[in-house]
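Hi R.,

As promised on Friday, here is the backbone we talked about, encoded as structure tokens. Could you run it through your design pipeline when you get a chance and send me back a sequence?
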């Protein structure tokens, strides 16, 4: 039972850190555009591949 006196404050501190990290990420714009990165992989790349080095290096 005495362990709860230690675990509850530790869990509340960790919860506070997690909330602070989430608020920081939202304010920095980490969640502004969630759709574009997922759609970028579907676009064709019209640029040709660079020529390969015949020496193999």
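Update: got your reply. Pasting your designed sequence below so it's all in one thread:
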């Amino acid at each position: 039972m005495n362990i709860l006196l230690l675990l509850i404050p530790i869990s509340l501190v960790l919860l506070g850190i997690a909330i602070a990290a989430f608020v920081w990420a939202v304010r920095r714009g980490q969640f502004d555009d969630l759709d574009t990165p997922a759609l970028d992989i579907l676009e064709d790349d019209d640029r040709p591949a660079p020529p390969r080095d015949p020496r193999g290096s």
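One thing I noticed while checking it: Helices lie at 4-27, 36-40.

Thanks again,
M.
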